[in-house]
Amino acid sequence: MTMQQIKTTPFSDQKPGTSGLRKRVPVFQQANYIENFIQSIFDSLEGIAGRTLVIGGDGRFYNDVVVQKAIKIAAANGFARVLVGQGGLLSTPGASHIIRHYKALGGIVLSASHNPGGPDGDFGIKYNIDNGGPAPERITDAVFARSKVIDSYKIVDAPDVDLGKLGTHKSGDMIVEVIDPVADYADLMETLFDFDALRALFAGGFRMQFDAMSAITGPYAHAILEGKLGAPKGTVINGTPLPDFGGGHPDPNLVYAKPLFDLLMGPDAPDFGAASDGDGDRNLIIGRNIFVTPSDSLALIAANATLAPGYRNGIAGIARSMPTSAAADKVAEKLGIEMHETPTGWKFFGNLLDAGRVTICGEESSGTGSNHVREKDGLWAVLFWLNILAVRKQSVEAIVKEHWATYGRNYYTRHDYEEVDAAIANALVDDLRAKLPGLVGQGFEGMTVSYADDFSYSDPVDGSVSGKQGIRIGFSNGSRIVLRLSGTGTVGATLRLYLERYETANGHLDLDTQSALEPLIQLAERLSGLRQRTGRAAPNVIT
Ligand code: VG1
Ligand code: CO
Known about the structure:
Elements: E1 3-7, E2 21-24, H1 25-28, H2 33-43, E3 52-57, H3 63-76, E4 81-89, H4 92-101, E5 106-110, E6 122-128, H5 137-147, E7 152-156, E8 167-171, E9 174-179, H6 183-192, H7 195-203, E10 208-211, H8 217-228, E11 236-237, H9 258-265, E12 272-276, E13 283-287, E14 290-292, H10 294-303, E15 317-321, H11 327-335, E16 338-342, H12 350-354, E17 360-363, E18 367-370, H13 378-392, H14 396-407, E19 409-420, H15 422-439, E20 443-444, E21 447-454, E22 457-458, E23 465-466, E24 471-475, E25 480-485, E26 493-503, H16 513-528, H17 530-534, E27 541-542
Parallel strand pairs: 3-4, 3-5, 4-9, 10-11, 10-12, 15-16, 15-17
Antiparallel strand pairs: 1-7, 2-6, 5-6, 8-9, 12-13, 13-14, 17-18, 19-26, 19-27, 20-21, 21-24, 22-23, 24-25, 25-26
Helix pairs in contact: 2-3, 2-5, 7-13, 10-11
């Protein structure tokens, strides 16, 4: 084995976004592109010698090539050991758990999450730190700075590791352990939820459909739902991870998981439907006849947390990303616990979780999780719902409606305008930002603007400040309009418009969501000129 130091030239576009570096596959296929980025990560870390690194990905196209490169670069940079999921696979929450469980220095997670895969699809690389969570901005900024000046990378000249075989291998002097991607994660779930109660639920004829969307959660869902919990075979569909997700878009929302939604609204609906995304950290929850918004799901899980054994003693606090509806705030208020509003992206929850200030976190983009790992966790959310259903012995619909009747209802929708011309999108956001100071105190549609700003977050644990995290216009009655630019898209710009309206417990709880929000949708258009300036008649995706 020889360690090689290879000369390279920097790329200017390796800036990590909301969740790692995401680009089209051909961008990653450029000579030295992967090597430069991984070396830039390692150059930004301290104390690599003698430590363990976790590597795994969601199995999308190019995963196999990048895993082998990452192993060889890790070996040349002095890691003592790499833990890699069999076949190079690990879900994002699975990787987070493995990092924590085996006290690794960190992990390289290969995924572009909910973005489509395949030779012309997207690929992504993300670094997670020793708490199992996404690297904070201090590290991603350092990686980007390094990537702009890098002039060489280190790699061992060693054969590829046979990732099909569980057990101990070597790459250069470094130990490579190929591990079962599911086993440790499944054990962790068993410590959090009442598996006996869940087995009894399925034994009693409870019917569920879980759509793994041909992505990474398939093996996890087969092993846990059908294996450990005795759900009938066929409960999990699209359960084999495919490099191109079967040509689909592995985003579990009402657009891309429409067949599941239709099934749950149809005449032969099962009791419960769920799905997860490309890398297994998102979840979709649908009951017979009712879709549960991710914001409501967060509030419901928090309100019912003590029904699951892992949370029996109560929760310390809740955190939600800024665009997520304030449904969870009502629960925190009632429980008398801390509530935090953070910028979009899971990396902002890490400090609060580490400090023990919050137990449950969530995002409107179908992300829910807890202090059991440091990523959002799709299957965890599904198991949490099953645990709640098993204990309460009510339908999803009854549970949701009871919740609204107690806390009121936060009508909520997100409108995405994808692949918009970046210059138009940026100008639009800049112009709206300029208008904000003048909006406060003004009346629209019978509501008064109580605040209008570009969200800035001061982390209460380490004091770091993250500015320009999205425009929010809040009204005195609890309604909100939020607009921000996506940090995960790979082509042009994606504008996300978030709309929320609060109805008290004795208000109108049964309206159609889009109609309930129509006045706010129109007001957002009046204030931003979004449709007019982008030339779009309607959003590409409505969630
Ligand atoms: C989106 C979501 C955000 C989520 C992020 C990563 O980011 O809005 O809530 O944390 O994706 O999720 P953005 O910047 O495009 O709005 V995943 O499942 O793609 O890792
Ligand atoms: Co994801």
